Amino acid sequence: MAPIKIGINGFGRIGRLVARVALQSPDVELVAVNDPFITTDYMTYMFKYDTVHGQWKHHEVKVKDSKTLLFGEKEVAVFGCRNPEEIPWAAAGAEYVVESTGVFTDKDKAAAHIKGGAKKVIISAPSKDAPMFVCGVNEKEYKSDIDIVSNASCTTNCLAPLAKVINDRFGIVEGLMTTVHAMTATQKTVDGPSSKDWRGGRAASFNIIPSSTGAAKAVGKVLPELNGKLTGMAFRVPTVDVSVVDLTVRLAKPATYDQIKAAIKEESEGNLKGILGYVDEDLVSTDFQGDNRVQHLRCQGRDCSERPLCQACVLVRQRVGIQHPRGRPHPSHAQHQVNERHEDTGESGLPQRSVQSLFF
């Protein structure tokens, strides 16, 4: 099968990392990039050098002219249009457009790419009205007549597969989630104004900042049976990559520790192979920077099954990965790392089971 041809709108943090993944993927061909705010020289510089993921060490990247980049011998067209309708995607051969500006996230705005000649649009963020798909969760519901989809958020991509396994096997009555989230580009290096959230304007590298998250609500969109059952909040912390989602749920039926880990291991070798996996190491968040393994589970602890309580801590490596537009998992997408622990809470006597997962 010939590779699908993609264009990227917005060559910021997500756009550049999507480009890195696409250029190393035999079934995806990057043909065009649009960004009205940076020149080809600056695009080349930002693509080659990355503080978190390191220097690009594959094809040589250089400028051919003001409208063309060269990745090795591969030419990629560069446009600088502010209005998506004006981007000549069809002329560049782009069938699918990755909308990664963070601006055109609803269906009407994203549809402008269709008018510009694209066949399909994949929004790299949650959308209020575009259907959302997460590999391993609901991608089979995709129909070919759907032209605009949302890939949800990195947190949702990590949380939803694990929530699906727990819910399918044991049932989730209700749950609370807390995201311990690495810094993002919207935060401030020093204290500054933030009209949306005053605390969000405080210096990112000096503070643990309480914030809001839409991940719990988004899980309800990709798993309708969990709609309204999950809620939560977020904390922004001074790290540059890899985040944690702590999910505590009340199970519909009691389960032993061994039953829970056996269910997740079974899914990792069956329905969720390539998305969910299993590992047996003690690791920390920085161990997963740049790691493109699939989700793994590490299990240890003692059995304590008298209470139907399950706590899951899901680590999320944000902004990296590409959802395959044809509705199947891309080898570099939906990748997680999991570390599961079981321990007594002490005073309450209730068992807590902790599952740590990383999304790449």
How is this fold's topology laid out?
Blueprint: E1 4-9, H1 13-23, E2 28-34, H2 40-48, E3 61-65, E4 68-71, E5 74-79, H3 89-92, E6 96-99, H4 107-110, H5 112-115, E7 120-123, E8 148-150, H6 154-170, E9 172-181, E10 209-211, H7 215-222, E11 230-236, E12 243-251, H8 257-269, E13 309-316, E14 338-344, E15 351-357
Parallel strand pairs: 1-2, 1-6, 2-5, 6-7, 7-8, 9-11
Antiparallel strand pairs: 3-4, 4-5, 9-12, 10-11, 12-13, 14-15
Helix pairs in contact: 6-7, 6-8
Protein described:
One of its GO terms (biological process) is glycolytic process. Residues 323-360 are annotated as: Disordered. Keywords: Glycolysis, NAD, Nucleotide-binding, Oxidoreductase. Pathway: Carbohydrate degradation; glycolysis; pyruvate from D-glyceraldehyde 3-phosphate: step 1/5. The protein is α/β, with parallel strands linked by helices and 360 residues long. The chain has 2 domains: 4-130, Rossmann fold; 154-357, Dihydrodipicolinate Reductase, domain 2, CATH 3.30.360. It is 19% helix and 25% strand. The strands form 3 sheets. Strands 3-4-5-2-1-6-7-8 form an 8-stranded mixed beta sheet, covered by helices on one side. Helix 6 packs across helix 8 (257-269). The longest helix has 17 residues, at 154-170.
